[in-house]
Amino acid sequence: MSVVVAIDAGTTGVRAIAFDHGGAVVDAAYREFTQHFPRPGWVEHDAAEIWDVTQAVLGALTERLAGREVVAIGITNQRETAVVWDAATSRPLHRALVWQDRRTADRCAALEAAGHLPLVRQRTGLVLDPYFTGSKLGWLFSDGGVPTGPTTRAGTVDSWLVWNLTGGAAHVTDTSNASRTLLFDIGRLAWDDELCALFDVPSHVLPEVRPSSARYGVTTADVAGVGAGVPVSGIAGDQQAALFGQACFEPGMTKNTYGTGSFVLMNVGETCPPPIDGLLTTVAWSLPDADAAMRTTYALEGSIFVTGAAVQWLRDGLGIIASAADLEPLAAEVDSTDGVVLVPAFTGLGSPEWDPYARGTIVG
Predict the structure, then answer these.
(1) Mean of the pLDDT values across residues 259-266?
(2) Longest dimension (CA), the chain
(3) What is the DSSP string of 71-129?
(4) What fold does the segment set 3-241 form as a domain?
(5) pTM of the model
(6) Beta bridge partner(s), residue 210
């Protein structure tokens, strides 16, 4: 029996899941990767490690599949995280700047002070916040010293994984991930030259934007456990994938995900709505219709940056717990917080305040 494999490249680790053709889970494998915090408010990942971990979980998964054929691979990924690499070597040119990274807060504030927010809101549906990819790429090409020559490639984590899965044959992303960059016009569904110039990102480094369901390329022989010729056939940012996975196919249908952060997304149909204060307008997915034209569904989103990440902080930062499972019995030992409140703004506040300078506090 053949299977379809989904790669979920999240913020703290990579999961590979095999599904049968009825949609049932056959098996899964997971492994964490390293979080780097070089300065307060800075969060980085080693993109090479993300790829190594991806290969490791693919190898572990396929080893347990008892010879079942993998007929397609789909990718869902942490969004906004900026990855840059050299096409000639397929090696990263800098650590990836994670969506939680706040180092470009002053750049975003300066752009807002210069009056650029209305343009950004109208074309991208987003706000001027360091959460998104555009200012991170601008930092990498200036302060980070990354060259912008003909072999430089940039993208989000999905682009990096497809590049490696296909042996460098495909430099692509889908509309859901492109819509999180501050560089993409969500009405025209195209990279925007004016926005690229605003964030000092040369457009030639950016990936080709494709629908969320397409044949992006095929795997090469050296992909662990999978073998050559398996089509990579689906891409979606993790929160948009969750909206689709919860079958929120009609306007008004809404999901909330509790992971590293928390994200509420509501399907608003195929007409791009005007910006709403405190919320983001984003592409949910683009799918080909019967005539092979691309039909795009949009969503409204509210983003909270730290929920599950606070559990990781209790484990790795404070050493209060050894694993997430320890948290519930520990909390049950007290009857009340006695008015003590933790505000986990470790990487700023998202919706609706959008304050990149906020930090975690314990009050009461």
Answers:
(1) 89
(2) 61
(3) EEEEEEE-SS-BEEEETTTTEESSPEEPTT--TTHHHHHHHHHTT-HHHHHHHHS--S-
(4) Nucleotidyltransferase; domain 5 (3.30.420)
(5) 0.89
(6) 174
